[in-house]
Amino acid sequence: MKRIFAIVLGLALxxxxxxxxxxxxxxxxxxxxxxxxxxxxxxxxxxxxxxxRYIEENTGIDVEWILLPVEDSRGKLNLMMAAQEVDVVFYGxxxxxxxxxxxxxxxxxxxxxxxxxxAEDTLALTKECTFGETFAxxxxxxxxxxxxxxxxxxxLLDAAGIxxxxxxxxxxxxxxxxKIQEAYPDKIPLAAAGQTSSxxxxxxxxxxxxxxxxxxxxxxxxxxxxxxFTATTDDMRQCLEFIAKLYADGILDPEYLVSTLDxxxxxxxxxxxxxxxxxxxxxxxxxxPYMADEDGEVRDWVQVPIIIxxxxxxxxxxxxxxxxxxxxxxxxxxxxxxxxxxxFMSTDEYYYRIMYGEEGVDSVKNEDGTYTLLDTPLAKAYSxxxxxxxxxxxxxxxxxxxxxxxxxxxxxxxxxxxNIMNFYAPKEVADPIRVHPYTPEYDDILSDLMDTIAxxxxxxxxxxxxxxxxxxxxxxxxxxxxAEGLEALNDWYTAG
Length: 496
Hints:
Blueprint: H1 2-25, E1 28-34, H2 50-59, E2 62-68, H3 73-82, E3 88-91, H4 94-102, H5 120-129, E4 137-140, E5 148-153, H6 154-159, E6 168-169, H7 170-183, E7 191-192, H8 207-212, E8 219-221, E9 227-229, H9 234-248, H10 261-269, E10 275-279, H11 280-287, E11 301-304, E12 307-308, E13 322-328, H12 335-344, H13 348-356, E14 363-365, E15 371-373, H14 377-393, H15 399-407, H16 413-424, H17 440-443, H18 446-462, H19 469-479, H20 482-494
Parallel strand pairs: 1-2, 1-3, 6-12, 7-10
Antiparallel strand pairs: 3-13, 4-13, 5-10, 5-11, 8-9, 14-15
């Protein structure tokens, strides 16, 4: 009996040791991710929710999710990187990760990427966008980051007998703006939030106009296959002169340079504004509730996504093709686990789970590929907080997935179709250096170049400077070393 007891005891001891060994082998990864404004459900936080549990159950990896603050996320991330407090980094800004890689803070994932199990779209985009060493994973996303559209108050234009053609050109658009001024002399024909909306060339919210002149990006390819800096071209001169004329003639809101999304809302409500330039997401996120008719549907305002310009280019640019970038820090002690996590999060199955919960439990898949949420507590949480999980835990978004998510956010099918067409319309103005290796001759002076362009553009706009000051701007850009920087870019670009 004692012998049997001893054997049982020994087996139990061995089993406990094996269990402990396995427990010790379960890796833990510290993951940094950009924060957002969304609040978690009651009783949950970034490390206590069904998404985190889903990740851990399906990877065998314990994750510590560290949300970076909305304000100064780069500053916080810099401190964490310096203190070696993070293993995996998700960040949307390529330049940030490029800087970290230049400083030797990121791992080259090239030796591991082919066998890690990445989804095909993620693997293909990453290989296309990296140069020799893979210090970042490129998760597919939207095709454009300068998606400024023109929106107009349709009842006001209809009352004035002003028609808007389907394929709007820059000349036609200009004519319409002056017709608006003639019909409504006490209203603002065109407004934009000069203090918001992204832009490479600094007159914010004017991206569609810049692109119509072929200069929405800082560089473009010339006929001989080399790069030129668009801010020094005659197209830039003409563009600034055009926008300045709109301002001088009272077409563009006199408060444009100091306007924000919030300051424009009262003008929309009071119908002081007849039309507006805005990012499509600003429209859906800020303006749409104030543009609804009596039935609550947004039929009063129409969006025009594309303006054909002087160079027969569309009024959009090809910007970031990724939704998120993923990287492994150089000090990460478990590269295999980190690669497994990055690959798992690239799958469509993971995305669906984030947006719709467990299929067959929280949602059902329809014949057309869309999902319908069921009447479960978790499904109700998704119906009200779906964007929370998407913003905090999603790293990719294909066209199909994007359409599926956005369809339910629009008050009408027409609005949805216009915005999807805008987002995925062929872009003829592409930035050839959107993702390029660190080039000190160019990258180290870029902020100075942009600051100079911003100052001159604003003063030309308001009439403080005549358009002849454009030559002074070009001279000042040359003084910063633009010629040398452009030469370095061309050495990389022409080398293939």
